[in-house]
Design brief:
mainly alpha; globular
């Protein structure tokens, strides 16, 4: 990995937990419950929170087909279990308003006075500049089924801590769009993408079970990958399998680099410094799972 792409990945590692607060904070579950979602499980509100920007322009909300394609790693059967039903509970505009309230409450609970301080304002301004460069990223236009583009089209909130969260969300979804493009270029369908990632030790196989693939589908994907010489008999990645995953991650980092190049190295480094406090608070809170399907810190 080049030094520049290493810095791109560092920014993802710093921003991802700040974005993910929405999916785990008790305040977010409270807001989801107020909308009418079943919060005994994570998924109704997760699909609503994450997909709502793609339906912000009106209509009944993104379809199951859209969500399956844009999220990629979830089985279509699992997605259909929640989408489009979630939009009968609350429409995208109501969900978007609730997620702003959820992040506001969660950040204030986690970060306290930092949310209204000068470091939050400075971090928000820098992160917003990077996020606004996403739409001008000629190396990877945000078009089509793009969650980065959908979030970029939303109005910016006023409060700095909410600006920071929205910028983190735009940047992580932009990276995700590029990651899916890299997976497709590598010839990895959604379940193969997960099987190959588990095979390099990104996380235990049980962690990936949350994406709704049946044992039969998982086994068949492993057999396809083995037929390509990417998995060994023990289910772990071969040298070729590891090389392919390394290339996927390198390509993902390259596709995510545009906003950070636009921001400039000095300002990127300053933002990384400013993110230290909120990152430590979020990680130290114990809200986020220690093991996840992103494999942060594993590749």
């Amino acid at each position: 990995m080049s030094e520049e792409l290493g810095r791109v990945r560092q920014m993802w590692h710093l921003l991802e937990p700040l974005h993910a607060v929405l999916y785990y904070a008790p305040e977010a579950y409270e807001e989801a419950a107020a909308l009418g979602y079943d919060v005994e499980e994570r998924w109704p509100s997760y699909f609503a929170w994450r997909a709502a920007p793609a339906g912000a322009s009106g209509g009944g909300g993104p379809t199951a087909e859209y969500v399956t394609e844009a999220f990629y790693s979830f089985s279509s059967a699992m997605v259909r279990g929640y989408v489009p039903g979630i939009w009968a509970t609350a429409g995208p505009e109501a969900v978007l308003a609730a997620r702003v309230r959820a992040v506001d409450r969660a950040y204030r609970a986690l970060l306290g006075a930092w949310t209204d301080g000068p470091e939050a304002a400075e971090a928000a301004a820098l992160a917003r500049r990077a996020a606004e460069a996403v739409t001008a990223d000629a190396a990877r236009p945000v078009t089509g089924l793009s969650l980065g583009a959908a979030n970029s089209a939303l109005p910016w909130p006023d409060a700095p801590h909410l600006v920071l969260w929205q910028a983190a969300t735009i940047l992580r979804e932009h990276r995700g769009d590029g990651h899916l493009a890299a997976l497709r270029e590598a010839g990895l369908d959604p379940v193969e993408a997960l099987v190959s990632f588990a095979a390099v030790g990104a996380a235990p196989v049980a962690v990936f079970a949350s994406r709704g693939w049946s044992e039969r589908e998982w086994t068949a994907a492993g057999e396809r990958l083995a037929g390509r010489g990417l998995l060994g008999e023990d289910g772990t990645a071969t040298e070729a399998g590891r090389a392919l995953r390394t290339e996927v991650e390198r390509s993902t980092d390259e596709r995510a680099a545009g906003p950070w190049r636009a921001l400039g190295e000095a300002d990127r480094a300053r933002l990384a410094e400013l993110l230290g406090t909120p990152w430590l608070e979020v990680i130290g809170s114990g809200l986020l799972p220690a093991e996840n399907t992103l494999g942060i810190g594993k590749v």
